[in-house]
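hi! just following up on the protien thing from before. the input was this:
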Amino acid sequence: MWLRTDTSVQAVIAAKVAGGANNSTFFVERQDQHFNVNFADFTSVAVTADDTAALGQWFHFALVYNGAGTTDTDKLTIYVDGTSIPFTVFDGPIPASLVDSTAPVEFGGSQARTSFFTGRIDEVRFYNVAESASTIVAHYNSAVGSCGINSDSGLVAGYHLDEASGSSAIDYSGNAHTGALVNAPARVGGLVCCPIVPVTPLPTMTAPGATATPPPAPTVPPNPTATATQPNTSTDTPTSTFTPTPTATACGGNQTALSFAGTSSQVVSVSDFAAFPSGLHAQLTIEMWLRTDRAVQSVIVAKHGGPNNQTLFVERWDQHFNINFANFTSVAVTADDAAPIGQWFHFALVYDGSGASDTDRLTVYVNGVSIPFSVFVSPIPDSLVDSAAPVEFGGAQARSSFFAGLIDEVQFYNVAESASAILAHYNNTLGTCGASSDSGLVAGYHLDEAIGAGAMDYGGNPHNGTLVNAPARVAGVVCCPIVPSTPTPSVTATRTPTPTRTPTPTITATPTLTASPTLTATPTPTPTPTRTPTSMTPSATPTPLCVGAAGIDLTHVTISKNGSPIGYEQLRARGRVQLTTLIPAVDPIANGFTFALTDAHGTLIFSRSIPGGQAPDLRTPGWRVNSGHTRWTFRDSTATVAGGITSVVISDQPNVAPGRYSFALKGHGTFQVLPAEVPVQLIAIFGAEPQRAAGQCGQRLFNPNGAPPPRCTLLRSGGLLSCR
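and the predicted 3d structure came back as:
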């Protein structure tokens, strides 16, 4: 586990102990800067020497017991940050076997001993094997992932402790040893862990206005420097020399973006910001991550409600931007940039009405570098029109112009961010996600919601958005690294009698855990981009998307044409659910239908929300119901209403059993599943958020290939996924 002790008082951190004789397996205490390990009602006690993990500092703790060892030191080893710590006391020999206690396993304290830890705990794992020294080092250095993975040999239970709410600690090992939070320990900022391989990064930008230069090909050191030990307390000042890695480090939870089809009126709409800047000398900054999939001229962000109701709108066209103010009274066009179709890049627009010239008032950045303008049609205004129009991104409904591509991590500021701040945001030193404490942040959107039609504003104001016409949720950028506060260097798997760990003097926001692909200064456009899975190393808590979810039986998921190329997949899924909650009544016409596919860790691969609404005729997309109100059918031959879904059939089977419902769906579009994401989990919700909260849903986690059914198998070199 990872620990941060906040007091030096002796307290239990982990235990399997209950009252009464012969009902204690072990308990471990932290006291000052050492550990006490107690076996079987104090028949054996071991005390470590002091280590160098100070109060208020995160560190990695591991205890390894091996009853087959010949000596006490062979049977018991304690590691701090990957280094073994010597013992100063052995009181009684370490036992050759552990007492089979019926007591619960607890961490954070022991109720039976009325001893409770003061501090923070994260990423807890229990194994039924004695992990080697090199494995402990690898876990500490995040080479295997400080979060653990459910394929770790001997993993009995693992807890990310990343649940957003509730009183449960979900076991991600697959063994379902879910824990209960007793007396409500608080959920606070935890570790940043589980690095994820970058998705086609663009060239490193060294300073605003500078040109890109390709760095040398990176290499992975034998023991990568750990980055998972940092609370979010850094005040380090970013510089302009960080290497850009837009997907370098995971924050936990889903890491999704929104996919816009470009032809189906899909936008995210936010009611008029009361704090959106307007008037004389107003200031505005807009930032987001983009991936354009077509060269067609289209709006990416706007505050535009028609004539005389427009603040501005921004279009992407080929490899440049058009910025339009106040009903075309001012237009600016950038020169071409180096961000090709099919590749993620960071976009920022900064407006400052107090500027003396057009170039002082308006700046556009791509990947932290300002892009020159090729056209100014009339001067850039010194004030912004106070429009009552909604703020939209992904398109503009008033202009009937819609973006084709992916958008993630969107922020709006009522200040003109500096060039260094834009570069820092791009380089992740402040986090591409932004932070609610960012100066002038009006609204920010991670777009990481697993399901539903909302875009939650994390800025604290809140300006929550609505997903119009169901843009699809797909794998997005991974962001929000936390800068180390007290970094520690890599260690090797050797026993050190008096370990020392010297803080690393140079702080870097780019982990050295995973090799990035070789970067080039002039990237080649990629006509058929591939998706990097967010589950390459697990970054999400496998919290069920359903409350009290029932299982899905007779389940079958098939994806053909899988990733050849991406965007042309054929999806079929079906299953049957026995609902125990029938209030409110299941009604797809009123509530729609939602489904999602995740990997085994709970990391979202994709989801779709099929909206409610009755079709007025046979040609119009929508729902129809039979005369008995037992069969609902959704049809959309255009595949645009719900992100590629063409049909959904839901059947009530009251003659079989009350609450027995089946579903079947088809679709084509972006439904790729990568080998690293198999086996998958299917979640079906008979409605939207209220129905999910009521438990009107089901889920099925498939077994891996070779295991008993239901299992997932990749066939035809990965071109066909069959789960049944």
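Residues 73 and 712 are 44 Å apart (CA to CA).
The helical segments are 72-75, 133-140, 358-361, 419-426, 588-591, 689-694.
cheers
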